[in-house]
Specification:
Distance between the termini: 33 Å
Number of strands: 18
Shape: elongated
Structural class: alpha/beta
Helix content: 25-40%
Largest sheet: 8 strands, mixed
Number of helices: 15
Radius of gyration: 24 Å
């Protein structure tokens, strides 16, 4: 109950902006920023981080800010591409190491990022995801160049296994002199503050959101002679697919009219295939594989219940999308999930097969008795809880706050690294900061700033692809400039 009360607060605290920082701490108001979003994860890859970056960028452009996105190349998608409203994306030619994350040496990306930051006249570098090596590189280089930095953490981590220990140490180094940190839930904030030994006052809570018109109910797509449980998730261990493998045969044995619709791909798909084969459930368990983002709603509206079996989640956008489509939601009680939806819209269970089966039995009984709210009424409630415009307004307050803050000079930054990160790691990364600074001086000597062109800004729905000198032409002169809309690259269906 103590955590549930936060769900309403997440959508109503925009006046204070984030984690409760007082209004007087915002030092620069109504300023237009030039923002660079950096992450290894972006379109054409699809997921929660990718959607968050795209939607937030579009809403910030709508509010008059300039936004560019930097990610690594995806196959043949390299160079510069333009999305809706002149949103410019730099696909840098960097080597991918593992799980769509780039290999990092902390130096090889500096020449490319320096060009982007200078050409685009960036004032705020906003990095996303602890898993993204490019995001950590961008924070490191931005501080060397004297730029304000913001980081958004989208995940929860443990403290015991080797991978978590190493990731947490890297996060401690990256965030010790970052101006501000954003988390997507209060649980995520507590986790990040502990992992990176941060001052809670510089950590804000700004949730994810959904675009409600992309997730609207359509009861006509449901089959009334059956009850359909929908699962849409990456089929990996941390999403609890092993639990799902235990739930399916137990419930299908008890309820002959129960069907499962599973969307997503991953190494744990073999678990579901084995269960389907062992219990001969081919006609009752459909594995749809990877879904395009614009196909997710078409799958959701076919179901009556949305099931989430995650073992760890910072926020979980999937349950909000399921509820927005009018489904009853059953989920594990882990991470920040209890904060996301009001308690009458979600059934929370322990991350065990028995608990999840009991929760599903309860919802199935309510579904059969007709005692559940209509899909339209659920949608009308959910669409007001989380909106991208609200997220953008609260993120804008963070930018206003950091724009008035000091970026530490090199000597104070070195002292901060050694004091905050420990004598060994702190000294190593202080040495790397010096090397990064010297490399930046070398690049500035090799290619001085005065020889670098400033990029044409076509951000916004009315932006034109033309040089600034074209505005000085005579009124009767003919310009060959093309509207930005003519040069857009194909993107997922329209958002915000």
């Amino acid at each position: 109950m103590g955590q549930r009360r936060r769900a309403a607060a997440l959508s109503n605290r925009s006046s204070q902006g984030d984690s409760g920082a007082p209004a007087e701490s915002v030092r620069v108001l109504n300023r237009k920023h030039s923002i660079c979003m950096v992450s290894d994860f972006f379109y054409p890859n699809m997921g929660g981080v990718e959607s968050h970056i795209y939607q937030l960028s579009q809403c910030l452009i709508e509010k008059g800010h300039k936004v560019v996105i930097v990610t690594h190349a995806y196959g043949t998608r390299k160079g510069i591409r333009y999305l809706t409203n002149g949103l410019k994306v730099y696909y840098l030619p960097l080597q991918v190491m593992y799980n769509q994350s780039t290999a990092t040496t902390c130096l090889h990306s500096l020449p490319l990022l320096r060009c982007v930051f200078f050409r685009e006249r960036i004032t705020v570098v906003h990095a996303h995801s602890s898993f993204s090596a490019l995001a950590h590189d961008a924070l490191f280089h931005a501080k060397t160049m004297g730029l304000n930095t913001v980081f958004t953490d989208h995940s929860l981590f443990g403290f015991a296994d080797i991978s978590s220990v190493l990731t947490n140490k890297l996060l401690t180094v990256s965030l010790c002199d970052t101006n501000h940190i954003v988390c997507v839930s209060y649980t995520s904030k507590e986790n990040t503050v502990l992992r990176a030994a941060l001052n809670p006052e510089i950590v804000s809570v700004i949730p994810n959101a959904v675009y409600p018109l992309d997730f609207t109910p359509d009861p006509s797509k449901r089959q009334d002679d059956r009850i359909t449980i929908v699962v849409i998730s990456r089929l990996v261990y941390r999403k609890g697919i092993d639990l799902l493998g235990g739930i399916i045969p137990e419930l299908c044995l008890k309820h002959p009219d129960l069907h499962f619709l599973v969307g997503g791909e991953g190494p744990k798909r073999i678990v579901l295939e084995e269960v389907r084969e062992k219990y001969q459930l081919h006609d009752r368990v459909r594995l749809l594989g990877a879904l395009e983002h614009n196909d997710v709603c078409d799958v959701l509206v076919q179901g009556h219940i949305f099931l989430n079996t995650s073992l760890t989640e910072a926020f979980c956008m999937a349950i909000v999308e399921g509820a927005s489509c009018g489904l009853q939601v059953v989920s594990t009680r882990v991470g920040g999930i209890p904060e996301v939806l009001p308690e009458d819209l979600i059934t929370l269970c322990e991350p065990t097969v028995d608990s999840l089966c009991a929760g599903l039995e309860t919802v199935i009984a309510r579904q059969r008795s007709g005692s559940v709210p209509s899909p339209a009424s659920i949608h009308s409630r959910v669409q007001t809880l989380y909106t991208w415009r609200n997220v953008a307004e609260r993120t804008e307050k963070v930018y206003d706050r950091v724009a008035g803050e000091e970026v530490l000079p090199l000597d104070r930054r070195l002292r901060r690294l050694r004091a905050h990160c420990g004598p060994v790691a702190g000294s190593i990364f202080a040495f790397m900061a010096v090397i990064d600074f010297l490399f930046l001086l070398l690049l500035q000597w090799w290619l001085p700033d005065r020889f670098m062109d400033v990029a044409v800004d076509a951000t916004g729905p009315h932006g034109l692809w033309r040089h600034e000198t074209s505005s000085k032409k005579e009124p009767n002169s003919k310009s060959t400039a093309k509207p930005a809309a003519e040069l857009h690259h194909p993107i997922p269906p329209s958002h915000s």
